[in-house]
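Q: I have two molecules that I believe assemble together. Could you output structure tokens for the complex as a whole instead of separate predictions?
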Amino acid sequence: MGDNTVSTYTYNPHSSRRRKARWSERLGHFAPQILLIIGIAGLLGGIALLAAKAGHAGLPFSVGLTAIMARIWWRSELAALAPKPAGSTNELHDLLPADILAGWSQTLGRNEFWTLLAKSWQARFIIIRMQLALDRVEPVDSPPNYDQIWDQAVLLAQESGFTQLDSGTLLIAWLESDPAFKAVLTEAKLGHDDLVRMIGWIGRLKRFEDQEKPLYGGFARDWAVGFAPLLAKYGQNFSQQIEAAGQQFARQERINQLDTLVSALAGGNGSVAIIGEVGIGKTALLYGLADHLLQSPGTAPLSGHQVIALNASVLLALADQPGSLERIMLALFSEANHAGNIIVALDEAQLFFGQGTGAVNLSQVLLPILQARAIRIVLTLTPGDWQNLKSTNAAMSSLVTPLILAEPNEHEVINLLADRALTIEPRGTWTTYQALREAYRLSGRFFQDEANPGRALKLLAAATNQVVNGCITDVSVQRAVEGQLGVKVEKATTQEADVLLHLEELIHERMINQTHAVKAVSAALRRSRAGVSSPNRPVGSFLFLGPTGVGKTELAKSLAAICYGSEDHMVRLDMSEYQQPADVSRLLEAAAENPQSFLTKVRTAPFCVVLLDEIEKAHPNILNLLLQMLDEGSLTDTAGKSASFKEAIVIATSNAGADEIRKHISAGEELDDFADAFNDLLISAGTFKPELINRFDDIILFRPLKPEELGQVVLLMIGDVNKTLANQDIKVELTSEAVAILVSKGNDPRLGARPMRRMIQRQVEDSVAARILNGSAKAGDIIKLDAPDVA
Amino acid sequence: MVMWEFLTWWYGPGWSRLGRNTLRHIKRSYLGFSVPILLRTLFEPWRRIISTGSQTIAERLRAVLDNLISRGVGFVVRVIALAAAGIIILGTAVFGIISIVIWPLMPASVLILLVWGIIR
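A: Yes, here they are, computed for all two components at once.
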């Protein structure tokens, strides 16, 4: 009866479900309110007529009752026509969501189908959050290939785990299966995995909205447990916070670990150490535990238990007399024991065992409590702190069950970001899917101090302050990174592209000649910012070879200033201080051992020039580490934390073979004429191993400066002096004779331009200072120095 | 057709849904009043207020008395709560049963009221 076969799908336009969907559509969304008003009015009208003994009271009663029955039907059935799970049937009238089923027909054109989909919140959610520029798609009137859309929708639904088709799934299936939308997806940088994640995002949101309000154990839950006023005063009651906040979206993470945690707390030692890197979600797991226990049925283990966290710093602040801290702790644990339903969480537990800043050593208090197993305790620790505890307090560590948290994968982190985004985005703004992906990507590159999902969440939260056209986009995330680190991560703008294209000229404003070196480093930077070079290695790595005072360090400083905004973005290591095998550990010192260590500096400011001075003097073991740094773009410190060099420009300098360079240049040769032979010479002489030489992007030879170039150096240095004097409105100028004298006096073939700085200081700055002090130079003056002034 | 679909639902899934909803409301009242917890802890001391650490016989007797009072208070409060829960649950159940009984009569009532309204 009226069955039409559409390829593998059967569709009955006269099916009961479709009819109901159409009635529901016709009644509209205001149907319950209108029917309720009619119902009440009818009943009241009937009562009024009865009271007035006016007769015909049955009429309004029957109208009112009909309206009420219709309302019940609408709410209970018509508005809730759930489709069957994808894959369970081929009958479209059972498979399609009701809102689509009501308006769909096999001949429906693309525009009409699009209008139908766009009515749903799911489709609008997708279009806005995925930033789909659908208006750019050429309008076509013919119907889309529905068969392909249903097939794709079924696959997507099964893959996402949310098997009931909705308008969002259908829209995504259409976008993915129709070649007309390929450009839209490409422009929005969206692939299949992204689309599946989007379906999951909507599915989780819908599931959350459909959930019934939890009861959290009922009003008499706490009548059988003791009072805990001290814990309420000094602790942070996670359970109470959850109850007060009510049901929250995005609190459905780490379900497996929750089960393990509950089992470990309920049985065994009764105490657990949650071990994971900073940002991995240890505290979030405690909140998850509190939520889980509040919602557990009365028969479940630990049902109704509350999680109360103690903070070491707060407790330390309370201890005003010797021994008072121990007394407070004992009182708190005694209270927890008496209450009978408290799980004490020691967040950042190392602080209770005397490790780290602001720590107190309460091992002697905690050990007997753990041994007695009367109170359930959860410690949160980083792997390093857990190792420390095991080595320094084996008795205590043996009393707790370790629960190691693994870092979630990309899929899990993005899902978590998606759910959290809905709770952290400011009212009236939309976090786009691309922003979530960018937060994951950039936090991985730039905030390696923390683990995921913490680092990605923090970055996403920071991006909420960078709203672009009402949305939190990938650009918002990039700007958040730029704001925090002071570096460029956005796609090169026209202005920046201009800087990159004219990098050589900009560098030459700061240094003289060495055109080959300047050209090589400029090209490397252009490759990096254009996204051409490998993202897994440093932006550029160069070995600068040449005599002292020819501009090697100056070029490094110029790069730091031009590329990273300031000369301060340079981490400099004098490799002559790393000549012993034992110096390896000093190079790899962790932040805890030395907050100013090399790797800590790079980790906190990854956008920098790493300058390794006199590299030939370093111990071979150190050079082996540099191989790893150049190859993999990272080094790992003694605490096992890695520091990334992927945003750094690594420059190693060496004077090795300086005399050889001078000899060649004196003989009238150009650098290119002997560069290869020179490199071979350094390898054959054993100065550098070939594997190290080969790791650098370029080996750059610097030649000694000629007298006329030294003259230009003098003028650059005078420019610096003038910058300093600018606030006094005084300017210094040198005659050409004065410059010549300074060059002849400051030139040392062995030290290059290095003595020039001293010469300027002595001959120019001293002279200017004397004139300012004796009043012969005042604001607005130009001090002109001639040969006798600098002789 | 609308009437047929409506009546099919009303006397089929709609009626059974009403039954399920009644049971759900009873269950929520049961849990909302913490009935399982109240029953399990009926004779336990009120908020675990108990006396411990007694040495002498007099102190022990005093502790036993204190604990008995605590349990007595707990028992009374819980019994009152259980009674309140019982009333609410019973009310919900009665209301549910009445609804289940009235439910099938409602469509016919519309007709009766309509006819009554027309003739009187």
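A: One point stands out. Residues 57-102 of chain B form the longest helix (46 residues).
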